[in-house]
Amino acid sequence: MAASRRSAPGRIVLGALLGQLIWLWAFAQTSRVAAQAPVPVVYTQVQAEQGQAAYAEHCASCHGQSLDDGAYGPPLKGADFREKWGSRSPEALFTSASTKMPPARPGSLGDETYARLLAYVLQENGAPSGARELAGDPDVLKTLAPPAWPGAGGGGLAPGALVPPPPHRLNPLDKIRPVTEAMLTKIADGEWLTWRRTYNAYGFSPLKKINKGNVADLRVAWTWSLPNGPNESTPLVHDGVLFVHGYGDKLQALDAATGDLLWQYSRRLPAGVAVSVKRGISILGNRLFVPTSDAHLVALDVKTGQVVWDQAVGDPKTGIRMTGGPLVARGKVMVGTTGRIGGGNYIAALDAETGKEAWRFYTIARPEEKGGNTWNGLPLDKRNGASAWIPGSYDPVQNLAFFGTGNTYDTGPLRVPVNEPGVTNDGLYLDSTLALDPDTGRLAWHFQHQNNGQWDLDWAFERMVVQLPVRGDLQSVVVTAGKQAIFDIMDTETGQYLSSIDLGLQNVVTAIDPKTGAKIVDPKLVPGDGETKMICPHVSGGRGWMPTAYDPTTRLLYAPIVEACMDLVPVPTGERGSLSTGVRWTVRPRPGSDGKYGRLQAINLATKATVWTDRQRAPLTTGTLVTGGGLVFVGALDRMFSAFDAATGAELWKTRLNDVPSSAPIAYAVGGQEYVAVIVGPGGYQSDSYAALVPEIKNPPDHGAAIWVFEVPSKSSGRATR
């Protein structure tokens, strides 16, 4: 009992301490919860009024003056709208609007205007205003609570209504397989897994069901509207899923047989970053690799479109961009940059699993490295260009990745050679083929097709790896052509120059050294002396960026060409011009032109002979596709998409699209049914350069991007039910 009496004060003290600790813990938890509680949504009345004015200007034509009475857009107020958006922070609605609206110019209004529009929508749905403006920052908006909207009134699904289940549809993503390196090396006939389908950049599909005998029956299988804007991309197709890039940094997965949307990825670009076209995407494993307009490379989950990793490749504030597309080989994602940044561009390789940069090769030789003395004595920060703006190709035998580079716009400092021993004005690695080891980035060899190019006639295009007879033996060679429509042929392993094919569309090169491939130019045609120079072809190319196609069974290459020239006209004193030699280009017909500008030419690479040529009024605006069915497909400025007999050049079929195609067509198969697809989305330089030559061709003022997919109907009508 004595012991018990002595412990009583201790128990009282202990109890008091324990109670205080419990109170402090509870207070801390309450404070923590309060600190973590979302901040209520607040906007000002003035902000909502500004949003109303912006809505009337940019949105009412689709969504209606009252936000719920539009003929074309979904309602932006009412029970259905509040049910869709009311459980999320306002960031979700802000991001959706700022990445998708207005449809013709998504993301173009600026964050402040989108915040004002959001304030107006909040007001019209009953959310109260306050004393603080709504922020135009997605990170801030994420911290806000869902809007304090009133409860549901009329509209929406009737309470207690039973909705019958939708019909069962097969989703090809459920069975899509990871893409292996082996699958990329030997691509299944019905797949299109790289920019030009195969590593060797042929643009050839072995599919034969659509052929010369039935192409007249080709019809539309399905179409799909893409985000509006220029589109030069080539889709990928794998296991019945078509992946397509859209303007405004969007990527969509579609059912390749029906055109149904499976998922969409949308990227929100930082303020001040302009949207740019992309010509290609890549796939490996369960990931798609997509370049972005803010100079990042993003890996997306193939099945969901969710971001797996996101890696910066450059700083968009410097003007660096990626408009070509990645090449995936040996576990590396290789992508080139474009821009006028001092010190030049580069090809970066990222680890496909982690996104970590593995290596970087600069496409302009550094002063202390081999080739560094070819820049007329210029310091590194005064050297620019050598953009790698077309996806690369790959030879698994030599384990070499091939990229092409363009020239520099700052041509003035290279025009006249300085009088210094050991210094030239060749400008490596402008207008060159670069053979890189994908594992290390080591330069195995290079070949400069045109030293000191003064005309912006790039050599940046696809590098085909072809088996051709050379001095009686079959040899692996790299074939490429620049804008001048001169094809150079080099040994794949060493880069040794072998031969050239000049299609006769240029007037700058007067001779080609038969041993070295060096181009001898007419000095009278070098701009910068104050005189106008008439140059063929035009700066957009005899052959532009649009890729050629090659049939390995016939050794015929199909080149889309435009027969046009340019004047390089001196600009007034004080103006820079298109090139820093002080000239600006204008378009003109070729001397003696008959008014036919579009030219599709078939060349036998083994014999170097032209097999046939088709000429037409409308300039060609797409790359070519050649198939095992003996067909060549190409599109033109008059919106025509045509099929030709690959052996004779006879036109067998054509159809008119909704707008100008500016990409490269593809062929693929799903469930035994074969398709041909082409993307429409004008606005690239090839679709804009020649309008003055063909004033009678009138294309839609309000452009419409889309993908068109064609088929020859099968006997079974159950193809598209899924």
Largest sheet: 5 strands, mixed
Strand order of the largest sheet: 1-32-33-34-35
Assign the structural class, choosing from mainly alpha, mainly beta, alpha/beta, alpha+beta, or little secondary structure.
Answer: alpha+beta
Share of helix, binned: 10-25%
What's the β-strand tally? 38
What count of helical segments does DSSP give? 10
Q: Overall 3D geometry?
A: globular
Evaluate the radius of gyration. Answer: 30 Å
Q: Approximately what portion of the residues adopt beta-strand conformation?
A: 25-35%
- Regions with little confidence, pLDDT below 50 for 5+ residues: 1-19, 21-35, 716-722
N-end to C-end Cα span: 86 Å
Mean pLDDT: 91
Task: Give an account of the 3D structure.
The protein has 10 helices and 38 strands. With 722 residues, the chain is an alpha+beta fold. The longest helix is centred in the N-terminal third of the chain and has 35 residues, at 2-36. The strands form 10 sheets. The chain has a 5-stranded mixed β-sheet, with no helix packed on it. A hairpin with a 4-residue loop joins strand 15 and strand 16 (400-404).
Descriptive labels:
722 residues, alpha+beta, 5-stranded mixed beta sheet, disordered C terminus
What are the SSEs and their pairings?
Layout: H1 2-36, H2 45-58, H3 60-63, H4 79-85, H5 90-100, H6 111-124, H7 138-142, H8 181-185, E1 204-205, E2 219-225, E3 236-238, E4 241-246, E5 250-255, E6 261-266, E7 282-284, E8 287-291, E9 296-301, E10 307-312, E11 327-329, E12 332-336, E13 346-351, E14 357-362, E15 393-395, E16 400-404, H9 412-415, E17 432-436, E18 443-448, E19 464-470, E20 473-481, E21 486-491, E22 497-502, E23 509-512, E24 519-521, E25 533-535, E26 549-551, E27 556-562, E28 564-570, E29 583-589, E30 598-604, E31 609-616, E32 625-627, E33 631-635, E34 640-645, E35 651-656, E36 666-670, E37 673-680, H10 685-688, E38 706-711
Parallel strand pairs: 1-32
Antiparallel strand pairs: 2-38, 3-4, 4-5, 5-6, 7-8, 8-9, 9-10, 11-12, 12-13, 13-14, 15-16, 16-17, 17-18, 19-20, 20-21, 21-22, 23-24, 25-28, 26-27, 27-30, 28-29, 30-31, 32-33, 33-34, 34-35, 36-37, 37-38
Helix pairs in contact: 2-6, 5-6
